Amino acid sequence: MSLITSSIGQGLLWGILALGLYLTFRILNFPDMTVEGTFPFGAAICVSALVHGVNPLAATILSFFAGMVTGLVTGLLYTKGKIPVLLAGILTMTGVYSVNLRILGKANVGLLNKNTLLNGQLLQKLPINFPTIVVGLIIAIIVIVLLAVFLDTDLGQAFIATGDNEKMAQSLGINTDNMKILGLMLSNGLIGLAGGLLAQNGGYADVNMGIGTMVIGLAAIIIGEVVYGNLSLTARLVAVVIGSIIYRLILLLVLQLGFSTNDFKLISAIILAICMMLPLFEQKFHTRKLLKKGVEKP
């Protein structure tokens, strides 16, 4: 039971990262490789602040703003420097690695005997792993509500229009470059926040902890879409977080089958590949219609 609650808690925290990735991958419709640098950057900022006695809530908020900085750098390289977004993200990710080493002073820094957002006195009264679930659920709800409100504003609609049809958005007087920068900042802000939260949950920050995070976020997005199909935008945000939880439970199942934790990256890639091919199978074999209506007899 403790393994299941642990997976749910981690799924909620990883869901924050998936929500950030959703803004660029689905709404702006381009891949952002900054993710794998932003995640450990948010963790490094948060852990460094906690080690120096900063309030856990303030340290967590700092991780969000740290992520926004990396998003801003990528956005400026992409829109003003005219560097392809994929390469801009890789450049930022590469540079941030050295910044993380400067912040932490070494490759890995722990949080032993340090106050965090997950070990407050009130939360310690809860059963094991439930503090992570409570904090993850509260933050996920706050993020989803704020994103839903933002996307329903004129600015949010301009942001969506930029991803749907950039030329049409420009013809309506929307500054699409600003929208892209805004999207990258919000996306990476949430990814940095997830890094700070997961560093507190794991009890450490490591400069290499960002490896594979993009695959994890994409897997959560695709699983949420495959499981729930066509949804409203707000419901899709919820589905992304649920997809993240399902993904962690799938990994737990794989672990129970006897696989090593060393295989997780490979398994993650396989799960993502399968999930991304499901819409193709659905289109070819009409599986969703068969599930809903049953196979008609000739």
Automatic annotation (TrEMBL):
<feature type="transmembrane region" description="Helical">
    <location>
        <begin position="264"/>
        <end position="281"/>
    </location>
</feature>
<dbReference type="GO" id="GO:0022857">
    <property type="term" value="F:transmembrane transporter activity"/>
</dbReference>
<dbReference type="Pfam" id="PF02653">
    <property type="entry name" value="BPD_transp_2"/>
</dbReference>
<protein>
    <submittedName>
        <fullName>Branched-chain amino acid ABC transporter permease</fullName>
    </submittedName>
</protein>
<feature type="transmembrane region" description="Helical">
    <location>
        <begin position="181"/>
        <end position="199"/>
    </location>
</feature>
<feature type="transmembrane region" description="Helical">
    <location>
        <begin position="128"/>
        <end position="151"/>
    </location>
</feature>
<feature type="transmembrane region" description="Helical">
    <location>
        <begin position="238"/>
        <end position="258"/>
    </location>
</feature>
<keyword id="KW-1133">Transmembrane helix</keyword>
<feature type="transmembrane region" description="Helical">
    <location>
        <begin position="211"/>
        <end position="231"/>
    </location>
</feature>
<dbReference type="GO" id="GO:0005886">
    <property type="term" value="C:plasma membrane"/>
</dbReference>
<keyword id="KW-0812">Transmembrane</keyword>
<dbReference type="InterPro" id="IPR001851">
    <property type="entry name" value="ABC_transp_permease"/>
</dbReference>
<feature type="transmembrane region" description="Helical">
    <location>
        <begin position="12"/>
        <end position="30"/>
    </location>
</feature>
<keyword id="KW-1003">Cell membrane</keyword>
<feature type="transmembrane region" description="Helical">
    <location>
        <begin position="85"/>
        <end position="104"/>
    </location>
</feature>
<feature type="transmembrane region" description="Helical">
    <location>
        <begin position="57"/>
        <end position="78"/>
    </location>
</feature>
<keyword id="KW-0472">Membrane</keyword>
